[in-house]
Write a structure and sequence with these properties.
5 helices, alpha+beta, single chain, eight-stranded mixed sheet, about 20% helix, globular
Length: about 230
């Protein structure tokens, strides 16, 4: 996967670990401890730095050596305007690299595991396809200061494009399928999915242990399931 991705307005930096004393953990804790940014997370906001560290264990690359575990996470910064003039002939990315930035969010992909929501074949891939096709799940979260500006769409599109370029990252799988699950009560994320071109496969009626999500305690919710073939 690309280490750094620049879009017209953003800088996405691949993060593989978040250790104490490092800015990565500070940024991620700022995000994870924000009640609005985590309102649609089943884990809720972090109450401590330890909470954030535990959540990151399920998002950042694993160190336990498990086979067929694929993860990629990008910290997202908004590129701010620079007061310095650019040099003649300087590339856009080189110019952006010198500009100040502001942390605004996180986008991530990870392969399914035992904790992933099991879906019927009508909303995902046939079981038989699992031998050749890797399914990864998309997730993202942004601070409220970044909402309503199209940054989530811009970030997701950039990360998905990076996935297509990184064929060797997904070996031995030659085919890659991305899925995303969005609560029916979350219209902002539904718009993001539509704009990125992911296909709405249908609704899944979830029932289970009571969760506080989207500002309510819920034992049932309708979830939109989106999917897209990235490598086929």
């Amino acid at each position: 996967m690309d280490q750094i991705i620049f879009t017209p307005r953003l800088k996405l930096t691949l993060v593989t670990e978040a250790e104490r004393g490092r800015p990565e953990l500070e940024w991620l804790h700022e995000l994870r401890s924000n009640e609005e940014a985590t309102s649609w997370s089943i884990h809720g906001p972090s109450k401590s730095i330890e909470d954030t560290e535990n959540i990151m264990k399920s998002i950042l690359p694993t160190k336990d050596g498990k086979e067929n575990t694929y993860r990629a996470a990008y910290i997202v910064h908004k590129v701010l305007e620079s007061t310095n003039s650019s040099l003649e002939g300087e590339s856009k990315s080189a110019e952006q690299e010198k500009n100040p930035t502001e942390f605004i969010g996180l986008v991530s992909l990870r392969s399914l595991d035992d904790g992933s929501l099991a879906l019927p074949e009508t909303l995902t891939l046939p079981v038989a396809a699992a031998t050749t096709t890797l399914t990864i799940e998309l997730g993202y979260s942004f601070l409220p200061i970044a909402w309503g500006n199209g940054y989530a769409t811009e970030s997701v599109e950039a990360m998905l494009d990076s996935c297509k370029r990184a064929r060797s990252f997904w070996k031995p799988f030659s085919k890659l399928y991305a899925r995303s699950i969005v609560n029916e009560r979350n219209p902002a994320s539904l718009r993001v999915m539509d704009k990125t071109g992911m296909t709405n496969k249908g609704l899944y009626n979830w029932t289970g242990k009571k969760l506080f999500i989207g500002g309510e305690w819920r034992e049932q919710d309708n979830l939109h399931v989106f999917g897209m073939h990235l490598l086929d």
